[in-house]
Specification:
InterPro entries: Cyt_P450 (IPR001128), Cyt_P450_E_grp-I (IPR002401), Cyt_P450_sf (IPR036396). By secondary structure, the protein is of the alpha+beta class. It has helices at about 10-30, 35-45, 45-50, 90-110, 110-115, 120-135, 145-170, 190-200, 205-220, 220-235, 240-245, 265-270, 275-285, 320-325, 370-390; strands at about 75-80, 85-90, 250-255, 255, 260-265, 290-295, 300-305, 305-310, 315-320, 340-345, 350-355, 390-395, 405, 410, 415-420, 425. The chain binds protoporphyrin IX containing FE.
Length: about 425
């Protein structure tokens, strides 16, 4: 928090964090791991409605959807009556910002991103450019543009979060709310605010603590939506197979341009083994989970002929991406094999997707507290997108770009330019 998220390096901050961390995490766990609560949370993001305007076909910048604004959208095809029918866009940027517009209002309500339209650009600049440098110990005062721009983005995000918590606090206490903002749809941030209030955490410290939380909610999830879409489209015939598998759970209104009339998010998560196996394979290739633990008491580990003695006060780091690429666990590890995680259940005879050795969420009691929500968000966005949109690569063939190390999920070395058309039912 000090080194990367820029929180105050003071005993007061440290003391506050120690008191609030457990109650804050238990709120997240209750909302985002539990099956029915996580489904309800994804439902609040209203993917079926929003996906209809994934690209709006608008030509004036001010008419674009907020998630289209950084994606270089361009109308590339029109019908006989001059109505736009196809749009070209940068896939990674488009789905990353679409996903963030689904997820962030679930925490903070709709007003937050509308009031802070720069937040997402700042978020990704911080995540892509600044985070990895600070993480390896580069000092924040170095007068390099990449660092100073990243620090400015981080400061703007903290100011935005501080303003948000002030408004939530005013709303909860029945005081007049700054700008008369609508706080009625704020999600678990209201419960977080009660914890902050109970322990006397200042508004600035609330913002410092929440920055790492909103980062954790988005930094891995949204890039993985991109990798998932890129991989499933690059495997011949897979999108058609997935459309067939999800069809009972994603109802589409016909005739005309397709629209989703209902979606069973829990069933997508429970009843679609190929979709699940393909997302596990995407985690294997696209995520870089690491569990880091502080050693509390001396431990001796035996490892073949080696004996490791772990000293209290040191840290142990388990980078699971090493295992994810180990050919002895995953043959042809560089290949995307969508059914790699499919098994036949010996009792029911049904196909199921099982993690096996994969650990995308870390391990033990400190493993990811948002995993069910994250997975449902990715599956819901992907299932909705392939149900009502056709997508093809502008350069003719699906070439999944090389990946670069990221801050939890890999970054594509370059974006994919895609052409999107609404699917039309007879
Ligand atoms: C695909 C998306 C995601 C991936 C791959 C992911 C992965 C991880 C990993 C590897 C950890 C560290 C676990 C460990 O130390 O063993 C973690 C921690 C955490 N994640 Fe996620 N995460 C994702 C999405 C989310 C979301 C959507 C949320 C919140 C809604 C979230 C909240 C958290 C929290 C609060 C922790 C800290 C847990 C603790 O210290 O007890 N994550 N995540």
């Amino acid at each position: 928090m000090n080194r990367v998220f820029g929180s105050e390096d003071t005993p007061e901050f440290f003391h506050k964090i120690e008191s609030v961390l457990k109650p804050l995490l238990s709120i997240v766990e209750r909302e985002f791991i539990n099956d029915s609560a996580s489904t309800a949370a994804v439902q609040r993001g209203d993917v079926p409605r929003n996906i209809t305007s994934l690209v709006s076909f608008a030509e004036r910048r001010e008419d674009l959807q907020p998630w289209e604004r950084s994606a270089n959208v361009r109308v590339v095809e029109r019908d006989a009556s001059d109505k736009p029918t196809a749009v070209e866009a940068d896939l990674q940027t488009l789905v990353r910002d679409f996903g963030a517009h689904i997820a962030i209002p679930v925490l903070y309500g709709k007003d937050f991103l509308e009031r802070n339209p720069q937040f997402l650009d700042d978020f990704w600049r911080f995540d892509n450019d600044l985070f990895p440098l600070l993480m390896v110990g580069v000092p924040p005062w170095i007068p390099l543009k990449i660092i100073q721009d990243g620090i400015a983005s981080r400061s703007r995000m903290t100011v935005a979060l501080e303003g948000l918590y002030r408004r939530i606090d005013q709303y909860q206490k029945g005081d007049p709310v700054d700008f008369n903002a609508d706080m009625s749809d704020v999600g678990i941030a209201t419960e977080r605010n009660q914890v902050y209030d109970k322990f006397g955490v200042s508004m600035k410290h609330r913002a410092d603590m929440d920055l790492s939380f909103v980062w954790g909610q988005n930094a891995n999830t949204q890039p993985l939506v991109f990798w998932f879409l890129a991989y499933i489209h690059s495997a011949p015939g897979l999108v058609e197979d997935l459309r067939r598998e999800i069809a009972p759970w994603v109802k589409v209104a016909t005739p005309g341009p397709m629209e989703i009339s209902s979606m069973d998010i829990s069933a997508l998560h429970r009843e679609c083994p190929l979709l699940k196996s393909a997302i596990y394979e995407t985690y294997r290739l696209g995520s870089e989970a690491t569990s880091i633990r502080r050693v509390d008491r001396p431990i001796t580990l035996l490892d073949g002929d080696h004996k490791h003695q772990l000293q209290p006060g040191t840290f142990v780091s388990a980078p699971f991406s090493v295992l994810q690429n180990d050919a002895s666990y995953f043959p042809d590890p560089e290949k995307f094999v969508p059914d790699r995680f499919l098994e036949v259940d010996s009792e029911t005879g049904r196909k199921v997707a099982r993690y096996g050795k994969l650990r995308p969420w870390g391990v033990g009691p400190a493993s990811c507290k948002g995993r069910t929500f994250a997975e449902k968000e990715i599956l819901t966005i992907t299932a909705a997108l392939i149900s009502i949109w056709d997508m093809e690569p502008a350069e003719g063939a699906w070439n999944v770009p090389a990946s670069l190390p990221g801050t939890g999920a890999k970054k594509p070395a370059k974006d994919i330019r895609v052409i999107l058309r609404r699917r039309v039912a007879p």
